[in-house]
Automatic annotation (TrEMBL):
Family designation: Belongs to the bHLH protein family.
BHLH domain boundaries: 1-52
Protein name (Swiss-Prot/TrEMBL): Transcription factor bHLH135
Gene Ontology BP terms: regulation of DNA-templated transcription; regulation of growth
One Pfam family named in its UniProt record: bHLH_ILI
Assigned keywords, A-Z: Growth regulation, Transcription, Transcription regulation
MF-aspect GO terms: protein dimerization activity
Length: 86
């Protein structure tokens, strides 16, 4: 039976991953975080992801309302359907 060894992540690798994560946050959030601790950056990242989920939910609701009010055989409905399939 093979034993599995856990590879350890070095502090430099963690710092590199934190920097990459920070670069993914929008500029406004990054400026408020600065060179903050990893825990603060992770909290900011979680908040950003939650806001993206809320935005997706809102856009989904708006799209559902638009589709419900639209004639399903109209050219506009066909355009929306083709965009959703892309």
């Amino acid at each position: 039976m093979m034993s599995s060894r856990r590879s350890r992540i070095t502090e430099d690798e963690i710092n590199e991953l934190i920097s990459k994560l920070q670069s993914l946050l929008p500029e406004a959030r990054r400026s408020s975080v600065g060179r903050a601790s990893a825990s603060k950056l992770l909290k900011e990242t979680c908040n950003y992801i939650k806001s993206l989920h809320r935005e997706v939910d809102d856009l989904s609701d708006r799209l559902s309302g638009l589709m419900a009010s639209m004639d399903t055989n109209s050219a506009e409905a066909e355009i929306v359907r083709s965009l959703l399939q892309s």
